[in-house]
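User: Sequence for Zinc-ribbon domain-containing protein below. Tokens please.
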Amino acid sequence: MGKFCTSCDAALNKGAKFCAKCGANVSSVPEEAGALLDQTTPNSETVLSKTGKQIKTEAKIKTVAYAKSIFSDAAPAYQSAGELALASELIPTTGDLTGEGLLSLLKSGFRGLASGFKRTLGDKKRMGIVITLVVIWLLVNLLASLGIFPLPVRALSWLTAAQGSLIGGTIGKGLVAALLAQLIADQGMLQKVKSGLGQMGGIGKGGKGMAGNLLLGLGIALIASNMMISSNLQNTMVCIAAFLLSAKALTHHGFLRRVITALLPKAKNATITIFMRGWTLGFALFAAISFLPGGGNGYVLGILLLLAGGIVTVVSRNKKEATTE
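Assistant: Structure tokens for Zinc-ribbon domain-containing protein:
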């Protein structure tokens, strides 16, 4: 039992070929075939489940591939994300600065200096700037030694830092030459300096805990300025050049910052940033105090600021340790 006639709906006996009621021919499908048909006919829920899993798998693969293309080191978006748009402490470094040894850093610095000389020799524009400056320096010093030093010559001497001591004057001339060369040869120099000057606005945001680092940077920059400039007011162009170049370096991990990081591997990035801002501001401060009489103002004020910075740093550290306890 279990089957019915398709003509009169009467129940059919098992294995019957004709209906006992109406005599109609029974054209039924064998049970085995029906079972086989049930097995081969896919369930709609099973089909939907398998399709959903396949779609999820393909979506996951495509998502992972897309994420890798966006966040990989070679992604154009990462390379074009300018450091100039971020504060120094927010810039993602491309190398491990804290693990860089001082000796290897100095070697790379000298190699970079040598390659810079080679590039200058091969660049007609930069080479022309250097030759012009050398001629001006020789001419100004010759006229000064002969007692011929009118206002135009003094202005040219100030603009090019023609006079100065043997060691400090040479370094100062190098800074002025570097600034002039970058202003002429590097089209993005002004924008980089402008971005660096924008970083100076965050000097007061470090809080009292960072004041010591700012004072230390100021003091060291004043002492360095006094070492480079022997005639103070006459060669203040050296301080202006140092200030602008240091301001540009605030948005980059320059050589000096890398040296400080190598010397103080445990120092926080924000601490070094505040120190570098003080270092930059110190050159501008020396250009202002150079109007005062005396040739050692930078040494005196620099030492006082170093002492003040050391005291403030120690007091802030002790307060922090006391609060944590």
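The chain has a mean pLDDT of 74.
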